[in-house]
Amino acid sequence: MTTQTLTLPRAPRSWKKLAQPVALILIGVYCLAPFYWMLVSSLRRTSDIFDTSLFPQTLSVESYAKVFSGSSDFARALVNSLIVATVTTTLALLLAIFAAYAISRLHFRFKNVILAVIIATSMFPGISVVVPLLRLFSDIGWINTYQAMIVPSLSFAIPLAVYNLTTFMKQLPFDLEEAAMIDGATKWQAFRKILLPLAAPGIFTTAILTFIHSWNEFIIALSMVNNPKFQTATVAISKFTGASEFQAPYGEQMAAGVIVTIPLVIVVLIFQRRIVEGLTSGATK
Fold this sequence. Notes:
mainly alpha; globular; BP-dep_ABC_trans_perm; transport; cell membrane; MetI-like
């Protein structure tokens, strides 16, 4: 009995060479198209805001001027976003580093169950925790405060940070840490002088992801704060109004969206190499 092997026709090499850049271009266009349209719309005059051309007929910064000259106090809202995102990221990292170290490097019972519970808490819809927290914060006088936005945001930032750092620390070799302890280092010294420097790419990547998540947070900030003095940028954008209550100022909203997005784009571009290192190093060790 003879066996025959079917040979599938190979695609021409020219198509293979062409397919990869075409796919990358399509993905890039798909991802950047909304931001490009937001940028172009923000540079149109108010009278041209519904123009559908790919480029503004007349470049105008009218919308940007209105963003900062209106009653929304958008500059203050940007500062509030920076405060909330920075404090949330710092606290989440401090707690997550120790939690991830314990789960990934120490031996004790039920640590996988603990990790599963931590991750499961991040699966709750944000709106499901808003109502009970709103009642609690009203009773203790936390409404219209920074902590009313930071504490609930931590419940979503910490699981993300713990999961990322645990995955990264599990890949780090135990030998260096054990060798340091054999040479006389304490557990704390081995953690501080050996493990933390090795985990720096993962910590840095986690910090960036947590900051972006906190910077973009909307539902908690909208629910816990009704004083414009404490509103974050995302909430301020949603409350832009035109000449009348029912008129949407699309140009101002587009300009504010660009202003909010630019810091994140700059951070990602500056630290792009470290972010990629942090995301890929755990898979290559």
